[in-house]
Please model this.
Amino acid sequence: MDSETAETAVYEARFGWTGRTVRLSLISLAFLGCAFIPNISLGIAVFAGSFGLLGLLVFTTASLSRAVALRIDEEGVTLGGNPLHVGFKTDVVPWSDITSVVLWTQHVGRTDMPYIGLHRPQGSPQLPGQPYGPRRRRINEALIPHVPAEIVQASRPVNMWDLDRARLESAMETFAPQVEIVDMSDR
Model:
């Protein structure tokens, strides 16, 4: 494969404005606006204003960061970290350490949060940017019983960025046809 073909096949998604971040920013703006309602109690005004301002700052900062959320290329899979953390960290996992790319969903009340994760060979080193430990494992097993712990630990939420399934599949076919995409979203 020539370099021009490889470059056009690369799939890269960045943090930015999505329907969800715009919606949550507008809700935050509404809370901020509530702080200025005449004759509202001071406690409610401070709470609503603080909540709204914090939400607006979080969603705007993350969306404007334009940091890499996901990249599929000849090297492997790059999983972006949280754009709000100081020292934003991405994890690059080579194709030799990936047996499948897993799409799954965490159901939280009436909201679903999609995730993309990596199934890796037994004994693979932990990704450095992820929290581990017995307490975290118990929480994940309780909240996400349908997804194996090793996949959860090598996953990122599709939040504040959009996943283009067709481009993901095309990039995977180009760079790693031996690695399958497993969709566990409906479980």
